[in-house]
Write a structure and sequence with these properties.
Strand content: under 5%
Distance between the termini: 36 Å
Order of helices and strands: HHHHH
Radius of gyration: 17 Å
Number of helices: 5
Number of strands: 0
Structural class: mainly alpha
């Protein structure tokens, strides 16, 4: 509804202002965004696992690894390699699709 959208928008804008104040240089903001992207991948993987109604142990079994490895992937996805990402997706019955987008601004 419109009220929910307005409330969400206000929260997003408040958070944006907070980030701009805290990360007041381009270098600081860039470092934050890099960390955010790494964090976001883990969140996405965890959400997909939950949508598939699977536990970390079940995913680990399908991947031939330990539950702790799945926890590391979901919580510290910074160093996940592409092959591991493909195996994780396959364990959930999913495929990985990559989209490249230009960040070039003229």
């Amino acid at each position: 509804t419109r009220q929910v959208f307005d409330k969400t928008w206000r929260l997003v804008m408040k958070f944006k202002k907070h980030l701009e104040k805290k990360y007041d240089t381009e270098e600081k903001m860039s470092e934050f965004l890099k960390g955010y992207e790494e964090f976001k991948l883990g969140v996405i993987l965890k959400e997909e696992r939950k949508k598939a109604n699977m536990t970390q142990s079940q995913v680990a079994e399908k991947m031939g690894t330990q539950k702790e490895a799945i926890s590391r992937i979901e919580n510290h996805s910074k160093n996940i390699n592409f092959e591991t990402l493909l195996k994780y997706a396959a364990a959930l019955g999913l495929k990985v699709r990559i989209i490249f987008e230009s960040t070039y601004v003229s």
